[in-house]
Amino acid sequence: MFQPTRDxxxxxxxxxxxxxxxxxxxxxxEQIAVAAIVEHPEYHRFLDDPERYRDRDWTPxxxxxxxxxxxxxxxxxxxxxxxxxxPGIRARFEALRAKAGSxxxxxxxxxxxxxxxxxxxxxxxxxxxxxxYFDCLDRFAGR
Length: 143
Known about the structure:
By secondary structure, the protein is mainly α. The protein contains eight helices and no strands. It has a domain at about 85-143. It is globular, with a radius of gyration of 16 Å.
C-alpha cells in the first residue's frame, strides 16, 4: 500500500498543478488531482507558492481547512468509487449525486462521511467501520 509522507503528498499536488499550468502531460492520478484542484480555486494560491505553503499547518481550531487534506480526500473517494470499495459506495454516491444535483456537492457529502468514519475510528481506537460511513451517507441521501 502506498503511504506517502505529508511532504510527499504535498509535493505531488504542487508538481501536478505546476505540470498542468505548464501544459505538460499528466499521469492518470495527476489528472484526477488536477480536476479536484480546478474545482477549488481557493487553493490555487497555495499550490502556486510551494516554498511558502509546503510546511504550513492548518488547524481546525483556527477554522481553517487544510487544502492538501481536502484534495487527498477527493483522491481517496475517487479511488473508492472506481473500485466500489467498500462495496455499495458507488450506488450511495449516485443517490447523493441525484439528490445534490452536482457531482462536486455529492463528493463533499461523501467527504464529510468519510471524515466522520475516520474520526470515530480514531476516537475509539478501532478500525474504520463501513457501517458508520454508510449510515452517514444514507442520512445525507435521505434514506
